[in-house]
Amino acid sequence: MDPYEVLGIDTSASEEEIKNKYINLLAEYTKNQDDTTPVKIQVLNTAYNKLINGRVYKEIRSLIDKRNFTGAEAKLNIVNDRNSAEWNYLQGFVSLQKGWFEAGLNYIKTAVDLEPDNTEYLSSLNKLQSRIIDYITKYQNVKQSSNPNSNNMNACGGGNNSGNGGMC
Question: Does the record's keyword annotation contain Metal-binding (predicted)?
């Protein structure tokens, strides 16, 4: 999707021109509603966010590339556009780096839900899900191959020679 084409503006349009065109199109879509209006508004919002927040998102990606996750998170908190697929994707990546796996996965799932055709988001989600499957498989294999009595310890915290007849 070309955000300039969606908004019907030139690539040299100023931020003011982008905002004015967005407001005018949004008003037009709202005034002349039909069955396609929600989709049109979603596409319009996505295009607008890409153009307006695009520079900030590039900065955030640069911070992530430099492993400056604190700086990236601070910028994401300033933008705080939870309806943007890009925001959710980047927030998911930062969350994963902080060790918040479930939150990170949920943010990336949201990004994919918002932009299901985005190959970068889909690829990241698929990699995460693949890692989950690998982890579960390895965990189950370790659990099955380990012998619970191999450490000669019982549930009471000692070996069977505790002098209490094997009872706790």
Answer: no
pLDDT surpasses 50 at 137: yes
Say how far apart CA 114 and CA 104 lie, in whole Å: 15
What is the DSSP annotation of 3-24?
A: HHHHHT--TT--HHHHHHHHHH
> Which amino acid, 109?
K
Which residue is listed with tokens 């191999």? 150
| Residue keyed to tokens 């990236």 | 72
Could you tell me if residue 125 is inside a domain?
Answer: yes
- For 30, the domain range is 3-145
- What are the respective helix, strand and coil percentages of the chain, to the nearest 5? 70, 0, 30
Q: What is the per-residue DSSP string for 60-73?
A: HHHHHHTT-HHHHH
- Whether this model's pTM surpasses 0.85: no
Using one digit for the tens of pLDDT, what is the confidence trace for 147-163?
555 554 444 444 445 44
Q: What is the CATH number of the domain that holds 16?
A: 1.25.40.10
